[in-house]
Specification:
By secondary structure, this protein is mostly helical. Helix content is about 65%, strand content about 0%. It contains 11 helices and no strands. It has 2 domains: about 140 residues, no CATH class; about 70 residues.
Length: about 230
Amino acid sequence: MHEEKKKATKQRFMFNIADGGFTELHSLWQNEERAATVTKKTFEIWHRRHDYWLLAGIIQHGYARWQDVQNDVRFAILNEPFKGEMSRGNFLEIKNKFLARRFKLLEQALVIEEQLRRAAYLNMTEDPAHPSMALNTRFSEVECLAESHQHLSKESMSGNKPANAVLHKVLKQLEELLSDMKADVTRLPATIARIPPVAVRLQMSERNILSRLASRGPETPPPQTPCTAQSG
């Protein structure tokens, strides 16, 4: 019994939004979780766990019903990071603005996650012949060429003539690649303008995505209580 309790206590909180790195969400989570772990302020510092309960609160009470979410004891964890601000006159305004801004980021990440899922379902892949891919390839070539020959600079400065000759050839190659990249960049805006919008290519508008995310099917479990979420 003791071992089971110990195991339950150590259980890690799991929640993720697979946005493919297209938003700043995962960078924020990483920094926030590091701060929460180091200071041992798991509930006082906003991080991934709070985002989970914010979404759960919105599912329960609806969009922008910040006060209802905050007053619901099941989502009491959301009030913890703001306890130090309670003496300020515009306390509620600060709190509500933060929640709105944070939800906007979560919503953006959720939309991208759904778009990526849809793209995978439609088996969509990048066209290797597309100009943007050519630019990416050239950038990789520049990076590889510069890194693999960085030692030549030091050798050339120390009077190594063969190294100096090779360095000049490498610099010439880099110059040509950069010139090609400059031409690619010049053509890119017009090329991108001709690409159909993401919603068209995925056959799914952002409104449809949000409707799907907001729909509560019978299989959706009711939100847990904060004390349940806090184990781990």
